[in-house]
Amino acid sequence: MGNLHSDALVFFGATGDLAYKKIFPALQGMVKRGHLNVPVIGVAKSGWNLDQLGARARSGHPGTPMALAPLIYTIWNRAMRFDPQDPIWPNRDRFVLSNGHASMLLWSALHLTRTRAVNADYETLGQQSVTLDDIRRFRQLASKAPGHPEYHWVSGVETTTGPLGQGVATSVGMAMAEKWLASQYNRPGFEIFDYNIYAVCGDGCLMEGVASEAASLAAHLAHASRSLRTSRHDSWHMDGTC
Questions:
Q1: Which one of 113, 133, 135, 136 is separated from 60 by 20 to 30 angstroms, measured CA to CA?
Q2: Is the pLDDT of residue 61 over 80?
């Protein structure tokens, strides 16, 4: 699993009713129960929080990264089989952020797990895939923390997600690929391929036809054994106040 390191801090802002009334109490409860082991929650060592990063970029969709912090922590720390030192291990679990405009979720996870960078020749390098300087330059030119996840630009990104619903459909294709690989190469007692795909999507993704069509295909082909989580807030739409 890609464990979050105790000397790193969660990069989610501490402003607004959503953070104060819901996010912080949930995270503090995780600390009390021993499920989260970080010295400070909410503000990074550099003094930057998510709102400041968004202000610097003049955009950034802060709602979903704050709301889904506990979910992403749980997936990456307790569910996924993922080695940050070898992010291209063939049987790794895949994480797909379909609502890619909430990319700070992924950049935070990659930074906190210290996921290693991989070059164009698929060689693991010594430096981190996403550094704190990259996060400071969120949505800036040449930053490894762009506004949407981009495959081959940032190690640890399994697929490019921009248009809503695209990640949902891609995750179904990944599940189909895993089934095919398993049928071709697995043998009794030697399961080479048995990875899972974890996709996080928003209500906007589910409004797109490609998502429902992909879900229908997955159910029809009996490939719906993969995990899909949605984010929705009654008073939020597209990660901003109505």
A1: 113
A2: no
